[in-house]
Amino acid sequence: MAKFMRLEVIQTILKTGLLPLFYNEDSHLAIELVEAIASGGADCIEFTNRGENAYPVFVTLVSHFVKANQAVILGVGSIIDAPTAAIFINAGANFIVGPSFNPEIARLCNRRKILYIPGCATETEISTAEEFGTEICKIFPGEAVGGPAYIKAVMAPCPWHRLMPTGGVDATQESIQSWIKAGAAAVGMGSKLISKDIIQNKDFAALSLLTTTCLGWIKNAREKYT
Known about the structure:
alpha/beta, 10 helices, 50% helix
């Protein structure tokens, strides 16, 4: 069962402007990665359902952080159907993220007061998701659908959108600044933040520092452009 209310999760994502996401089949390594990200200042973290061990690893993460760090808000990504969403919600997911919009998942999450962040690639998909109660839409794949220019174009007639590009957000000041300047409410970062080198070298200090640095770039960009 979720530990955080939907409004708390929304406010946390919008406040920090960053949603780190990753998958790792090793539960011990996954714990270390979450700890490093959280120590860097990002409390809301998406664990993606991209492997056979996703469910047991997620259960381990939930049971660990409910005691080790109660500020950590864990959610699950890469969810494409309502039954899978229900399984992870029952395991303690505080939010659900998907690569596409699914109305059945939206209804389930609304019923359970769980934040649902669906993947959208067109204005019609964004508007439809919002009609189902979506507060934050994941623009995916961010770079492929048009990059920051797409965000700017969509936000022009609909400034009330809260968009979170994922895919194509680099861990550089230039990249992050361009997305925030275009109107992104937050950014999702996977392998550009939690890189293969960091994982292979178990350089958790570097991950923590990079997380803090990215959060600083987001803050600076917001102060400059919003």
